[in-house]
Amino acid sequence: MKDALKLSSKINVREGLNKRKYILRVTKNINLPTVLAKESLFLDENSTTCDLDKFCLSGTVEKTSNQNLQTRDIYIPEQMSYIEEGDIVRVDLQNKTLKSLYRINSLHNSFLVTERCNSHCIMCSQPPKKANDDFLADDIIKMIPLINRDVKFLGITGGEATLLNEKFLQILSLIANYLPETQLDVLTNGRNFKNLDLAKAVAMSSNSNLQLCIPLYSDVSSIHNFVVQADNAWNETIKGILNLKRLNQKVEIRVVIHKQTYKRLPQLCEFISKNLGFVDHVALMGLEMMGFTKPNIDELWIDPKDYSQELIEACKILETFRIPTSIYNHQLCLLDESLWSYARKSISDWKNIYMPECKNCSVKNQCGGFFASATFKYSEFIKPFS
Length: 386
Known about the structure:
Helix content is 24%, strand content 18%. It is α/β, with parallel strands linked by helices. It has a seven-stranded mixed beta sheet with strand order 1-7-6-2-3-4-5. A seven-stranded parallel beta sheet has the order 8-9-10-11-12-13-14, covered by helices on one side. The radius of gyration is 23 Å and the shape is globular.
């Protein structure tokens, strides 16, 4: 079974370095002027010494002898050996950590901008925290100018990004200006867009490549409010969607399917079709076995095979109303073949795995596989196609 990528690790650090935090782009250009070295990380694999005016990272196998640590600032740990030229990393010399923030050859670069949230979803994969974590957004703000201009897709996730207020708008503006051709998906619960002024500010700060991805879990307000554990959330979400579309912003509705939501999935899709038919996309999604999902598993888990008919009916309704539709986070062997055209390889590459049952499957390359966390629990109907 393929392991998920490790995005951060402890590192050994050469003595005498300033114990600061750096956001750096990896480069092999040893001749880059020193004035640029403050915002670039020099990958020096061959020379025995490193120009002390440049911050040096070795791509060789980590060694811990004093002599080696004197000739390099830090070594890339073996589990992060995928780091390459054009990647962007955070080097924290105080805490001796290296974190991959952006990978140039990945199609799944998403940035966590805050862990704070005004909802408390029962299946949240990133449980909210109350502590001020503005440093996350500050790192993203420093990183955006370093990203290669031809990147096709980026994502913003949380927490609830709109809680950052001006910093959220600054991030949108920077991406629109530095990366005008890049598709940007922002995951948001949409509730704060009940404030039309915020919706207008987002429209002013972004461009036509922005899409707001907003969850709606039921056509019945009390069910949605229960899932997100917030009073009046359904009304606020609907008003937020209406405000955004009033301003011609792209909106994707996301529906996570589990025991609390699957029964009325067709009714929800009919509600969307008849009342929100102007949305740009609907994503029908499987559970991620992280965060609050694990302690709430008895209230959430239903085998995807057991909601097959509801999923088929939901897709037929959306297709009838010509609403673009995708199925995320599902394995092909659990889907009726009539739904394969909707299935997408949606799981980020750094947390995407395949189970032992998938080893000899003839459609493995077309299948989206699993979240790495799915080893905790997954369908008993997984089987290879021969």
